[in-house]
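Hello again, I could really use a second opinion on something today. I've been staring at a protein lately and its backbone has me curious. Please have a think about how the structure follows from the sequence. I owe you a coffee for this, so here goes:
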Amino acid sequence: MRTKLIVTLLGVGLLLAVVPAWAHHAFSSEFDINKPLTLKGTFSKWEMINPHSWFHIDVKNPDGTVTEWLIEGGSPNTLIRLGVTKYTVKVGTELTIEAYQAKEGTNKAVGRNFILADGSRLFLSESSALPAAAPAATEKK
């Protein structure tokens, strides 16, 4: 009886450990490689959450209204390895974002780069699934 209880608890524990891996998605499941876009807007918020960070960008439309875009970036640890910290881009900074739009057509995209006013680029991912993304940290010299 005790052995069955231990085996059952181990099984439940393993199952719960695997659930976060199922919840993570591949680039192609959510974003469209055939929908590259370039947005110009104002950085308004950064949510540093795993497994991805979310950058909120206010994009001004031709009619003067503002649309909020959500730009997915790498995990906080990945971004820090790429030199992007919460101090790198201040709220209110004007920037250009190179990204790929969500398949569902909403104002959501996965970011490839931030381009700052001085022309410098900040990579938002080192995923090999994302075209022209930063090389993996292990490949840097």
